[in-house]
Amino acid sequence: MKADLVLVFGSVSAFERAEPLAELKAFYPAARFAGCSTAGEIRGTQVLDETLVATALQFDRAAVRTASVTIDEMSESFSAGERLAQLLPPTAELPAPAGGEGPLVHVFVFSDGLHVNGSDLVRGLMQRLPARVTATGGLAADGARFSATVVVADGGPAAKTVAAVALYGSALRVGFGSLGGWDPFGPERMITRSRGNVLCELDGRSALELYEQYLGDQARELPASGLLYPLSLRTKSGEPAVVRTILAVDRERMTMTFAGDMPEGSYARLMKANFDRLIDGAMGAAQTSFEAIGERDPDFALLISCVGRKLVLKQRVEEEVEGVRDVLGPRTVLAGFYSYGEISPFTPGAKCELHNQTMTVTTLSEMET
Q1: Is 252 exposed, middle or buried (0-12, 13-18, 19+ CB in 10 A)?
Q2: Alpha carbon of 304 to those of 73, 179, 258, 271, 360: distances in Å?
Q3: First and final CA of the chain: distance in angstroms?
Q4: Are strands 161-168 and 101-111 parallel, antiparallel or unpaired?
Q5: pLDDT tens-digit map of 162-190
Q6: Which of 20, 84, 128, 139 could form a disulfide with 340 if both were Cys (CB 3.0 to 4.6 A apart)?
Q7: Would you call 352 helix, strand, or coil by DSSP?
Q8: How many CB atoms lie within 10 A of CB 49?
Q9: Is-contact 179 358, C-beta < 8 A?
Q10: Which DSSP state fits 359?
Q11: For 58-88, how does the pLDDT look when each residue is reduced to its tens digit (9 = 90+)?
């Protein structure tokens, strides 16, 4: 069978079995492969667990390249993003009938979910990518266990890896949108001490102590229970607030590690779920992505939603995927996963950054000749 790109998303345990991936590669011998472990797999409007979902894409007038880097320490996240961007050529040869060289248009990023500062990774990547090139993607997950994540980049699944899928060709149309749907509660507090994505103090008090105070009995289940109560982060610059969730806690040092930066001087506020607004947020992200490619039915949509949303929605989780289907229409192929962080601009034209607790929708179509 012919395919240019095969996206694979599955549980850590599914990737531990070598046979399914080997069979896929034998079935699509010329394809590039990329993907990661998840906290749930999206196939159409189904949300699955402990499976391996593969989506094969074939392009008529676009080209695909893949690259990957390894990262040993979280402090290397910025340089990992730079190195990854530098591995992607600015142009690539397009297939017939388009022919010739096509420009780099968009990059999908799939990153280790536990050993990366997602904010630094995105900054490094975007600093080195050519102007006007966009990027979306997400951080690999491991259910609500936070134990181990893996990334696929043509080879077998590997830990501490960041993969990129580069898409080339001016006939390619890419849309994206990212929205949440959480309600803030409690007072807004200033971050008075932090180190990158490690939060130490809020208003001069232990951040972990304050967090545990709000969570009560649920504090024993951190970091997993923190997915239900993320932090809204607002900077002094007036940029839109982003949401951050916990990856780990250190009770000896009384600190919390988040998926992205928690800069000193910023303001943080606890958030809680609103079922209807979560689903409305998913539909809003789909609508923004839909409109960005000219309001035509997309050929493909990559959905990346946060594990925290899945834990909150529970048996209603498929409603947010069905909401995306309602917006994009029955023709569009839907695939994706639940993540530890989402990479996207809020809307086209905004800067790319790491989000938590959002639904990010990326739509693809090829212009007809």
Answers
A1: exposed
A2: 25, 11, 18, 20, 5
A3: 25
A4: antiparallel
A5: 999 999 999 999 999 998 888 888 889 99
A6: 139
A7: coil
A8: 14
A9: yes
A10: E
A11: 999 999 999 999 999 999 999 999 999 999 9
